[in-house]
Amino acid sequence: MNQALVTKFPVTDKTRHALEVTLRGCEELIPKEDWLQKLAKSEATGVPLRIKLGLDPTAPDIHIGHTVVLNKMRQLQDLGHQVIFLIGDFTSLIGDPSGRNSTRPPLTPEQIKLNAETYYKQASLVLDPSKTEIRYNSEWSLPLGSMGMIQLAAKYTVARMMERNDFHDRFKAGTPISVHEFLYPLMQGYDSVALKSDLELGGTDQKFNLLMGRHLQAEYGQEPQCILTMPLLEGLDGVDKMSKSKNNYIGIAEEPNTMFAKVLSISDVLMWRWFTLLSFKSMAEIEALKKEVEGGRNPKDAKVMLAKEITARFHSAAAADAAEQDFINRSKGGVPDDIPEVSLTGAPLGIGALLKAAGLAPSTTEAGRLVDGGGVRVDSSVVSDKGLKLEAGTYIVQVGKRKFAKVTLA
């Protein structure tokens, strides 16, 4: 137990509940005993804890896998604690070496500013903006100056720095490591000192940087923060982590109908993990729902609840209801109310060329494959002939379960 936490505060049922909320779905809480005492101290004194999440705005768009950590922030925010959304505009100029086998190129100040604005706008769909403190680490990093940077660098050894896996592996492989990369974990750790953070959240790949914050806070005479790491969310396939490159993701800016349908496409097993990491329902509610399903209730009912909750979060309750109705219409072979309208010329036009021109297939080759697979319908009739030519007229063209277009051909 840290010396700063020697004064014992009573652990109440409310404190235990707060610990339970903290631990929900988390990978690791270090050290749990210190966090329990921080919670007890906060309850006894009425002073909210300061909870920090640092993000380097390296890309402007996020998918729901990125919101796992934001969900945890929201849960702690709802307990009454102070959430700090820290934008690493200074550290982005260095480039995070975490998990890298080469130097990460730094971003320009213009890229950072643009990405940061987009990030926060998207994060505000999960966090309560009125209770969120937004900070930029250039506030205290730039005033440090060369003298302060040297003094900060003196508080950590090269030997300890080289214990970090990515540095160790790159050094062993003879891959270059620039001296400035050592500054990244130091500066991220110094953020915790500047913000007097009680808890820092991050992905499992950030553990070294998070522990650096604890070390530096002790060096500066502060009560060290606890650290909480969250797991990576499995994507739609239930195998690999959610990733755009794996095409198993749901972007938080996707259309409501697409978002809803994608959630419904996950497996019944994966659904419960998504409930734990993405839903705002309590674990008691989720367990009760799980027991109902085990007792014979259709698991699809639970999945619809999850799909509606996620869709409503990033759009609205009305959009979620409409998406559910759209999904029902499609599943019955019906046509959604709102489909794109496309005007084409060149009648009579081959089905492959029409699908490509209407944006329903990326190429005529792929269009042919879709026809062979029975995935193409024109006016509700399955197309089986790849050589089909359509005369002038208006048609409802469907590819798979989700893609529709009203095509007027002249």
From TrEMBL:
Look up the EC number in the record and give it: 6.1.1.1
- Where would you find this protein in the cell? Cytoplasm
Q: Which GO terms describe its cellular component?
A: cytosol
Q: Where is the RNA-binding S4 domain?
A: 349-410
Motif 'KMSKS' region extends across: 241-245
Q: Name the GO terms of the biological process aspect.
A: tyrosyl-tRNA aminoacylation
Q: Give the catalysed reaction(s), semicolon-separated.
A: tRNA(Tyr) + L-tyrosine + ATP = L-tyrosyl-tRNA(Tyr) + AMP + diphosphate + H(+)
Free-text function comment from the UniProt entry: Catalyzes the attachment of tyrosine to tRNA(Tyr) in a two-step reaction: tyrosine is first activated by ATP to form Tyr-AMP and then transferred to the acceptor end of tRNA(Tyr).
Q: Which PANTHER family match?
A: TYROSINE--TRNA LIGASE (PTHR11766:SF1), TYROSYL-TRNA SYNTHETASE (PTHR11766)
| Protein's UniProt name | Tyrosine--tRNA ligase
What's the encoding gene here? tyrS
